[in-house]
Design goal:
Layout: E1 6-10, H1 17-30, E2 37-41, H2 47-54, E3 59-63, H3 80-86, E4 90-93, H4 96-101, H5 106-118, E5 122-127, H6 131-135, H7 139-150, H8 156-159, E6 163-166, H9 180-198, H10 200-205, E7 207-211, H11 219-223, E8 230-233, H12 240-247
Parallel strand pairs: 1-2, 1-8, 2-3, 3-4, 4-5, 5-6, 6-7, 7-8
Helix pairs in contact: 1-2, 1-12, 7-9
The protein binds 2-phosphoglycolic acid.
Length: about 250
């Protein structure tokens, strides 16, 4: 079973509207003809620009968060319908920064995954352990629990549409990458969890990314590991040359 490698950028709270337009023009030229799939997840204010600038290119566009309600009195929030109407096809759900700073819980992550699937948006579902959890030896249990709750109510037919991103919190933005083996080991645990819930075919078809200080120097080796199908890239996705190297890894 071959799973196409996905290089996904997570811009986080970076780049203004004008900076985004300029960056994407450059990126589109730089990654033209790349074999791997390319996604950039950008702030809400950059979505329209990103969609326009990527038209006719090999770059897809995603959002970084959304609300799970359809509409209503939720000041400051964005609904799935708003994203769909713009043409957004992917959404990051449950990033550790959302969980830590904005009280995102496993329960709301699950509601968002269900809403995204209902609206035909591909969820990029994030999970991962803290340094303390790793040192306590509960990484596998923790990540399995996050995945099981996040996928509650997701059908077998839908589960393979979900992209899972394993991001150890201690490796995010720290320059401290998990070793290839550490990263692959947890991605294999996640695949095994999918197998347990949905069977072998679903497990083999589901894409699992690694994220946490992926850069031009380590992407190739990480992406060549048996259970890693690409990367969710923060800092290094903000530089055209570096992200291009990762895309071609
Ligand atoms: P980083 O971020 O590549 O800057 O470590 C990854 C992420 O948070 O998705």
């Amino acid at each position: 079973m071959s799973r196409r490698v996905l290089a996904a950028g997570n811009w986080k709270m970076n780049k203004t509207h004008s900076q985004a337009a300029e960056f994407i023009k450059e990126l589109a030229l730089s990654v033209k003809g790349a074999k791997n799939e390319i996604l950039i997840c950008v702030p809400f204010t950059n979505l329209e620009t990103a969609l326009r600038e990527t038209e006719g290119t090999n770059i897809s566009v995603g959002a970084e968060n959304m609300d799970y309600h359809d509409s209503g009195a939720y000041t400051g929030e964005i609904s799935a319908d708003m994203l769909v109407d713009l043409g957004v096809k992917y959404i990051i759900i449950g990033h550790s920064e959302r969980r830590e700073y904005y009280a995102e819980s496993d329960k709301t992550v699950n509601l968002k995954v269900l809403k995204a699937l209902e609206k035909d948006i591909v969820p990029v579902l994030c999970c991962g352990e803290s340094l303390e959890q790793r040192e306590d030896g509960i990484t596998a249990e923790w990540v399995r629990m996050q995945i099981k709750i996040a996928l509650k109510g997701v059908s077998k037919e839908d589960v393979t549409k979900v992209v899972i991103a394993y991001e150890p919190i201690w490796a995010i933005g720290t320059g401290k990458t998990a070793t290839n083996e550490q990263a692959n080991e947890v991605c294999a645990v996640i695949r095994d969890c999918i197998k347990e819930l949905y069977g072998e075919d679903a497990a083999e078809a589901t894409r699992i990314l690694y994220g946490g200080s992926v850069n031009a120097g380590n992407a190739k080796e990480l992406f060549s590991m048996s259970d890693i199908d690409g990367g969710l890239v923060g800092g290094a996705s903000l530089k055209v040359a570096e992200f291009t190297t990762i895309v071609n890894a």
